[in-house]
Amino acid sequence: MVRRFNRLAGIILDLRNDGGGSLVDAVNIAGLFIKSGPVVQVKASNGKIQVLEDDDTHIEYSGPLVVLVNRFSASASEIVAAALQDYKRAIIVGGEHTYGKGTVQIGINLTKNLRASVVRELGDLGGLQLTLEKFYRITGGSTQYKGVTPDIVLPRLSQHLRSGEKYLDHSLPWDQIGPVAYTSFYGKSVKLDKIQAMSQQRVKLEPEWQTIAKVAKMADKRGRQTAVSLKLADMRQRMAEARAERKSLRGQSRSPQTGPYDDEALSASDGPDMEKDAVLTWREELDQDLYVQEAKISLSICKDHDTQLSIALRGLGCFSVFSYRLLPYSENSGNSEAAVVHPDLINP
């Protein structure tokens, strides 16, 4: 299944709303897209630093790559996004930052090893959650607290939410250690500054992006209100405004991780007897996701954005992302050569 990567014109790796996976999984996923080298540094509580590397020189996919994140992308997802960004292997697209969960904890049950008589006398003593390790990028900066800053920042309906380590009481601060030696991706690099400028222009001119930004700003304003009128007329006005907001979003108020990407829809696309209607429905709903559209346009992955769809990989716990059968980006999978990266966006 993974061997089909090299027939594709582009991949969108979707790590939004994801906080699962292990360190080993993170290294393996990043290793699919780079030749070899360090992926993440792990610093233990005793100060010892371990560098986890991808030691497999084979690259499963060397073409254009976009990673979608949001402020709910956490832990191992941030390791993958940070590594691919540092290697200049992928363009990271999302909100202002990811969650910033750059630590490893272990739970200790304080009741587990006590004698039964002690438990009967004292009752359940609960447990402790201890932080043992901290993640660092190969450039030396931690993913803790700050998270990963995308290359292309887009408006989000959830951007007013105080979600992330930086908003928690007593969260560990950001810090850094020394970098490790690594070689940037050897393939042709994209002209990121040009792609960023093009994206900013689209967001500025596209009504749907402006609607999302407007609704998010209004939601932030409402969240800061500490007093609400109980007058019936005022309440009806607020309800009418809320309905107008939802209508103006044209379906974008739905979370991208519910509906088009649910388990049932994706399972219908798996196996040799997959239902064509289910697959087409999934693709149509996927194509309504503005963030997937922006990811495709940013790299100009497809020659015809209206009829051809690049691969979108949905991560359940991030790292079962490859457990689904990959869908060809066009109805005619033998015509994959037709989808090319725009030459103006590639450095020679």
Question: Could you walk me through the main structural features you see in this protein, from its secondary elements to its overall organization?
Answer:
By secondary structure, the chain is an alpha/beta fold. It contains nine helices and nine strands. It has helices at residues 23-31, 76-86, 116-122, 192-205, 207-224, 232-248, 263-267, 276-287, 290-299; strands at residues 11-14, 37-44, 49-54, 65-68, 91-94, 103-109, 127-136, 152-153, 311-314. The strands form two sheets. Strands 8-5-4-1-9 form a five-stranded parallel sheet, with helices on both faces. A four-stranded antiparallel sheet has the order 3-2-7-6. Residues 1-7, 253-274 and 301-348 have low confidence and may be disordered.
What is the fold's blueprint, element by element?
Blueprint: E1 11-14, H1 23-31, E2 37-44, E3 49-54, E4 65-68, H2 76-86, E5 91-94, E6 103-109, H3 116-122, E7 127-136, E8 152-153, H4 192-205, H5 207-224, H6 232-248, H7 263-267, H8 276-287, H9 290-299, E9 311-314
Parallel strand pairs: 1-4, 1-9, 4-5, 5-8
Antiparallel strand pairs: 2-3, 2-7, 6-7
Helix pairs in contact: 1-2, 4-5, 4-9
In short:
This protein is an alpha/beta fold and 348 residues long.
